[in-house]
Amino acid sequence: MAKMREIGRRIRSLQKTKQITKTMELVATSRMRKTQQRALAARPYGKKLEEILSAAGPGARAEEFPLLRTPKETRKIGLLVVTSNRGLCGAFNANVLRLARRSIQELREEGIEVELHMVGRKGANALRYRGYAIATSRSDIGDRPTMAQASEIGGLFIEKFLRGEIDGFRIAYASFGSLASQTPVIGIVLPFPAADEEEPCPDFLLEPSARAILKRLLPRLVEHRIFRALLESAAGEQAARRIAMKNATDNAEELIRLLTRSFNRARQAQITQEIAEIVGGAAASD
C-alpha cells in the first residue's frame, strides 16, 4: 500500500513538471520564430555592407582610416563572449564558453593578452567562477537586442582600438544554423580582414565619394557585426531551449508511462493478495 502511494505521488509530480516543460517549450517556440526572423533578415544587410566596403577600396586607404590599419604587432585582443541570461537551454552556453576558453588559452600561449568582456549572466558567472578576470559585463540584453545596444558595445571597442589599448577585437557566440544547429564561432571584427582581390566585386557607383562613405561605413560595419552576433545568439538560445524542453517533456511522458505500469502491477498484486486472503479465510472457516 505504501509503495502504491509513493508511485502515485511521483506520477502526480511528473505530470505537473510535464505541464511546466510543455509550456516553456511553447513559449520558446514562439520566441524562436521572432528571433529567427530578425537574425535571418540581418544577414543580407550585413553582406551588402561588406560588398560596399570592398568596392570602396579599403586596402589603399589604411593610412587615412585608423580602423583599416593592421597593427604591426598583436599584443592584446579584446574578446566579447555572448551567452544567455537564463539557463534550461541544454549545452548552448557551455559550448560557447568552451570555445572561448580554448581561444583564450591559444592566444595566451602565443604571448597575446586577452581582455575579456561578457554579454549574458550565465557566461559571466561561469567564467568568474573559473577565475577569469572580466573587464565589463552586461545582462540587460535579452532576446530582442537593439542596434542602440550594439552601438554602445561597438563604441567601446572602437575607442579602445583607436587608442591602441587593444590590437584586435573578436566575438564568441553561437551562430544560428537551424532548429537543431547552433554552432559556436569566433568572429574577427577588428582589424578588418584584407579584401580578396581574386573574388569578383560588384560594380558600385559610389555617391558621395569613397572617402565619405568609408568614414560612415566603417563604424557602422563594426556595430552591425556585433548586432548580428547578438541576434544569432538570441535565436540560437530559444532554439536550444525549445529542444531542451521538448526532450524534458518527452522524458516526463516516458517516466509517467513506466510508473503507471508499475502502479498497475502493484495494484493488481494487492488485489490478488486480498482475494487470496479472502479465499483462504473462507476455506479455514469451513
Task: Explain what you see.
The protein has one domain: Pyruvate Kinase, Chain: A, domain 1 (3-Layer(aba) Sandwich). Helices cover 61% and strands 14% of the residues. Strand 4 and strand 5 (181-190) form a beta hairpin. A 5-stranded mixed β-sheet has the order 3-2-1-4-5. The protein has helices spanning 2-55, 92-109, 121-129, 147-163, 210-285; strands at 76-82, 113-119, 134-138, 168-178, 181-190. With 286 residues, it is α/β, with parallel strands linked by helices. It is elongated and about 110 Å long.
Structure keywords:
286 residues, alpha/beta, Pyruvate Kinase, Chain: A, domain 1, 5-stranded mixed beta sheet, 5 helices
In which order are the strands of the major sheet placed? 3-2-1-4-5
Count every helix, treating DSSP H or I runs of 4 or more residues as helices: 5
CATH class: Alpha Beta
Gross geometry: elongated
* Helix-strand makeup class: alpha/beta
Q: State the share of residues found in helices, binned by percent.
A: 55-70%
Identify the CATH homologous superfamily: ATP synthase, F1 complex, gamma subunit
What value does the Rg take, in angstroms? 28 Å
Strand tally, please?
5
Question: What do the pLDDT scores average to?
Answer: 84
CATH architecture: 3-Layer(aba) Sandwich
Write the SSE topology:
Layout: H1 2-55, E1 76-82, H2 92-109, E2 113-119, H3 121-129, E3 134-138, H4 147-163, E4 168-178, E5 181-190, H5 210-285
Parallel strand pairs: 1-2, 1-4, 2-3
Antiparallel strand pairs: 4-5
Helix pairs in contact: 1-5, 4-5
Can you give me a brief rundown of this structure?
With 286 residues, the chain is an alpha/beta fold. 61% of the residues lie in helices and 14% in strands. A five-stranded mixed beta sheet has the order 3-2-1-4-5.
